Amino acid sequence: KAGVTQTPRYLIKTRGQQVTLSCSPISGHRSVSWYQQTPGQGLQFLFEYFSETQRNKGNFPGRFSGRQFSNSRSEMNVSTLELGDSALYLCASSLSQGGSTDTQYFGPGTRLTVL
Amino acid sequence: AQSVTQLDSHVSVSEGTPVLLRCNYSSSYSPSLFWYVQHPNKGLQLLLKYTSAATLVKGINGFEAEFKKSETSFHLTKPSAHMSDAAEYFCVVSEDAGKSTFGDGTTLTVKP
Questions:
Q1: Cβ-defined contacts of A61-68 (< 8 Å, 24+)
Q2: Per-residue model confidence (pLDDT) at position B55
């Protein structure tokens, strides 16, 4: 089975622009979560989507948004980019059979650099 | 609310010696606990997970972890370190499907 894929792998943007990142989950997985990884803040949860609905949300400003399509693929959007948004953005998928025991499988990440 | 504390930001061992990476957690419920490894410029790989079936959990590459509820700990161990084990390790707690809280990570260095 193919793993979680993320595109693009690398992005360079300038402040004020917006960006869209894409994530394709493992086939059959219905939950997609997004995380931001930075040297200063570590790995932080952004949000989770299940059946095209946002089910969980972290403590990020409204500039960060996402969506999920009927085939479970997900996109994440960041508007009005700031220098501090430079990070590795990781996507994870899980079967979401219910409860906390689901294992999340991570993609390789998208490295976003904001100049 | 859930939280995770990895007690050491850096651990250095010699090849062939034991590895101990320490993790304490806090959770209002009976959480699931995970250890992930991240090699440089790579994604996160699952090492093992605890889901209340057995307190001693065996993972990949010879790693194991013991869940101790009384100590709220989930330390990761390996009897003999290999050079390829050098990486960053994350302890993770999950109360809710799809939402995980990560520790700050422990960088493991393995000296020849």
A1: A66/A34, A68/A32
A2: 87
